[in-house]
Amino acid sequence: MSDETTQPDETPDEQPAVEAQPLTPEAEAVVEEVAEELVAEAVAEEIITEVEAEAVAEVLAEEIVAEAIAEDVVTEAVAEEVAEELEVEEIEEAPRVKPAIPGMDLEVDIVVEGQDPLSRGEDGEDGEGGEDEDTVSDEPIVSTIDLAADARYRATGKRKTAVARVTLKPGTGVYTINGRAFDDAFPRETLRKNIIQPLEAVGFAERMDVVAALHGGGVSAQAGALRHGISRALLEADPNLRGELKRRGFLTRDARAKERKKAGLKKARKRPQFSKR
């Protein structure tokens, strides 16, 4: 056997690897400048593209509106309103400035006694009365109640534990409550105004007398029961009043009442004071 020495295959194309030399400060500065220029160019191109797209959209919108006006699809007034709305939407709201004293920028909301807190104002604001679909108007309800001398209309009204048996008859607007005068039975003016609301709404406040027998409950509950009874008696006199009286809330029995006491609690929801030790 002949001894043959194996030599590694050498490829003439392979060249020894050249080690990377560190960049000089001047070269690093040049590289940074080039990178910043590339980034700035990219951002500028994006901004230009967005601006051109907005300009094209505005031109197309103007052309569409002009064609619609020419073809009598829309009028110039409508086109102007649409343009104004678009301009208003583009305006950004100013940031809210925090007041020096918390709550000093809020408006005082005071409800006068006897005024409905849910009524709307002339400008559509709450608490001042106004015209709206859900707002109750002050105009009297047209009614065809028979005011014969012997006419009597009876009904029963309830509120909490109070019950009012009411009789309406032709008269001059006198209220007799358990044989007493109206002012003696209900000294508070707000209660009296609340009671006479149904007859005032119908326009018979001074054309009918009210005789009522009340029992149970307190003064406020009896006033609510009396108002409920008068409303139901008016319904007996003229069934056509149901829709208008119901819309104004006169026929709805006020179901609010004190919640019962619960076992283990001091009242309906009040708990005893917690003591850790």
Architecture overview:
The chain is α+β, with helices and mostly antiparallel strands. Among the domains are: 25-84; 106-135, no CATH class; 153-247, Ribosomal Protein S5, domain 2. The chain is built from 6 helices and 5 strands; from the N terminus they run ααββββααβαα. The protein has helices at residues 25-70, 76-90, 182-185, 189-202, 219-237, 242-247, and strands at 153-159, 162-170, 175-177, 180-181, 208-215. It has a 5-stranded mixed β-sheet. α4 packs parallel to α5 (219-237). Residues 127-135 have low confidence and may be disordered.
Lay out the secondary structure:
Blueprint lengths: L24 H46 L5 H15 L62 E7 L2 E9 L4 E3 L2 E2 H4 L3 H14 L5 E8 L3 H19 L4 H6 L30
Parallel strand pairs: 3-5
Antiparallel strand pairs: 1-2, 2-5, 3-4
Keywords:
alpha+beta; elongated; 38% helix; Ribosomal Protein S5, domain 2; 5-stranded mixed sheet; 10% strand; 277 residues
